[in-house]
Structures are given as structure tokens and as C-alpha cells.
Amino acid sequence: MVAITEQTAILQKYLDLPQNGKVMAEYVWIDSEGNTRSKCKTLSKRPTSIDELPEWNFDGSSTGQAPGHDSDVYIRPVAFYPDPFRKGDNIIVLTECWNNDGTPNKFNHRHECAKLMKAHEGEDIWFGLEQEYTLFDQFDQPYAWPKGGFPAPQGPYYCGVGTGKVYARDVIEAHYRACLYSGVEISGINAEVMPSQWEFQVGPCVGINMGDELWIARYLLQRVAEEFGVKISLHPKPLKGDWNGAGCHTNVSTKAMRVPGGMKDIEAAVEKLAKRHKEHMLLYGADNEQRLTGRHETASIEAFSSGVANRGASVRIPRSVAKEGYGYFEDRRPASNIDPYLVTGIMVETICGAIPDADMFKEYARESSA
Ligand code: ADP
Ligand code: MN
Ligand code: MN
Ligand code: MN
């Protein structure tokens, strides 16, 4: 853990200086590895709407997003949030990556997803994502695990309380507060089954907002963890053996599912999902086959299954939803390292219908051929 040093006090002198009316805007984008990157720009005033934020660019040859001879990648602002690190009028700006020739950059899946969300706006589709993740120390050892050994087997850690049962609560608390400050719809947190594995939930969020908010929540998590000297892994099976993997359960409802009688709409959606299992799996995160083994509260990757209250199924209908006859369902297949735009995109495409000019599966092909 980091100690409070004299350096922290020195830095504070400068953080207390007024900014002369200028605003610092941290532009965030998604790189070719599914990480966020960011750089900062000075603005003359705080914007009141997204159109007031200028387009910018970065060197895509340094991020694997463009070739050296045509290296400019353009970043177009799509949403902005209060900056919990700099505070005041400073903001964090989420952007989409675009190529010089006017086409979306190969890792920009938001563009296609947004078209689908717009086309099905009338369905008022809500998502809630459960982001699981694992903490590592600077030496790439699972955070706070005994040196050269293993902690006691899984059991006491899920929602654990007390020394030896829960780790890094300070990091998680700081991230939670940062999300609330920024206006991210974080709906909760919990310690997970494997020690030093945690989860936060974002949602319900409507349409394209879901991907935006999850990416910003991930960015905030990386920034907070940086301050604590902790590494965040989104790998779906960070440790081999009898340790739980990490997922990003995707909870979904349309307007029709949320009103009495909605159970038949939920069942119809589950049927459509069953028919497109293979296509969905291709978009549900790399290395997911290491996690979806049929053990550790997962279903096998090979076949689609569904059930009420069944945490060993691909899709679970919560008990309370089955009882009331309406609500939402949970797709448990997505891995922790998904691009939420691909997952929410194909979800809408499958359950609400394809549209002529957007195809999430083609989106996947665009990335994998790169
Ligand atoms: P679990 O029991 O699977 O661990 P969590 O409480 O961790 O469930 O997460 C449930 C998620 O479902 C939350 O993100 C919540 O916002 C979301 N959610 C709740 N109701 C709906 C709904 N009607 N439509 C979509 N998502 C929903
Ligand atoms: Mn959960
Ligand atoms: Mn969980
Ligand atoms: Mn869940």
C-alpha cells in the first residue's frame, strides 16, 4: 500500500491553485486491447452540451489503432461527466474513435450499437451490467494473497466481513464514491467468491448509455487503483484451478417485459437467444471458454440453457420475476472483459430485431480481421 508522504502535501499546494477560469477536459477513448486511454485538453469554459466539445485526435500508431503512415485517429466526444479527481468544473469526456477517411475506427463498436439502440428506442430497453474484476499487486500477484502460497479455499470471501475475509475495501469504496460523484448509475458493489475479486453493478441504464457508463466506471476504477498501486484485471479466468472466474452478467428488460404479463416477452427473448448462441458467444469476450466450464456458477460454453433462479444456466430468470410474472432476465454468459457495446448491441439485435445498416456480428468480424 502507498504511504502518505511529504510529496502528497507538496502536490496539494498546486492543486489548491485557481485555474483562471479554464477547464481541464480529460478525453477518454477505448484502445485496441480493450483498455481505456486518456489525454487532457484545456477548454476556455465548462461546456453545457456535448456539441460544445471539440473533436480531437491522437497518434493511433502508438496504440495499435492506426498504421504509422496514416496515424491520426480522431476522437469525437459523445458524453461528459464531472471529474472526481480534479473536481470543480473539470470534466471527463468519453469519445468515439474515427479514422481519417471518415469510417469508424476498427475498435469503435459504439457507432453501430448506437444505431440499433436508436432504431429500437420505442422499446425503452434497460440494461444492468455486473462488472466482476480481480485485483493484483505491482508484482502481478493476486492482491494480498500470501507470498508464495494460496489463501484458504473459497467460501468465506463472497460478501465477506472481517480481516482475512475481505481485501482492498478502501480501493472499492474510493471507486464507488468516484462513480457517484461523476453521476455514473452505479447500483451497488460486493466482494466476490474468490479473494480479492470484486463486483460493481451499473444500471439500469437505457440503450447506448449502458456502454458509456460501464466504460467510464472502468476508467474510474483504473484511475483509483493507480493511486493505490493496485492493478485491475478484467480477465475472465485470472487464476487457473479452483478459483471462480469473472463475468459481466447482463440484465435486460424491454418496456413490455416490465409490466404485468411481461413473462411471455421474457420467454420469447430467451427463445431467440437460444437460436443465436454461437453468434453471441463470439462477442461475449476473449478467453471466455476458460470460464464457462459448467463449474463455478457457470453454464457450459457449448450449449444454451435457461432456468428460473438457476445460476448454472446461460440465462437466469430471477425467482422474484417468475413469481410476479414480469421484470427482466439475466444473461450470465458475458465475460468480464466484454466490450459492452458489442454485448448490448447484439442483445438488441437478437431480441428486438436486426436493422439494415447495423450488424453487430459483422462488427466482431471487423475487429478480428484486424
Ligand atoms: P445478481 O443477483 O445476479 O448478483 P445484482 O444485484 O448484482 O444481481 O445485479 C442486478 C442488476 O440488474 C443491477 O445492475 C440492476 O441495475 C439490474 N436491473 C434491475 N432491474 C432491471 C431491469 N428491469 N432491467 C434491466 N436491468 C435491471
Ligand atoms: Mn451480482
Ligand atoms: Mn457476481
Ligand atoms: Mn448476476
UniProtKB/TrEMBL annotation:
Its EC number is 6.3.1.2. Residues 23-102 form the GS beta-grasp domain. SUPFAM superfamilies: Glutamine synthetase, N-terminal domain, Glutamine synthetase/guanido kinase. Keywords: ATP-binding, Ligase, Nucleotide-binding. It catalyses: L-glutamate + NH4(+) + ATP = L-glutamine + ADP + phosphate + H(+). It is an enzyme of class 6 (ligase). This is Glutamine synthetase. It comes from [Candida] railenensis. The lineage of its organism: Eukaryota, Fungi, Dikarya, Ascomycota, Saccharomycotina.
